[in-house]
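Example 3.2
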Amino acid sequence: SDIAFEALTADGPGRPAPYLARAKWVWFADLAGQDEAEVADWLKTAHGLVAAKLTRKIQKDLGLI
């Protein structure tokens, strides 16, 4: 989301991802130093956002619905 992007890139551990910052993607130099549960939540959220933009047919083919 726009809010998460701003929070993670303003003072947070991330930077705007090269070539994908306009889509609000965040790049992390080192995830090992981050809280494991928080990283898992970020990945779950990102997966949900990307999956939601797929067509229903592709979602079904991938077993997402």
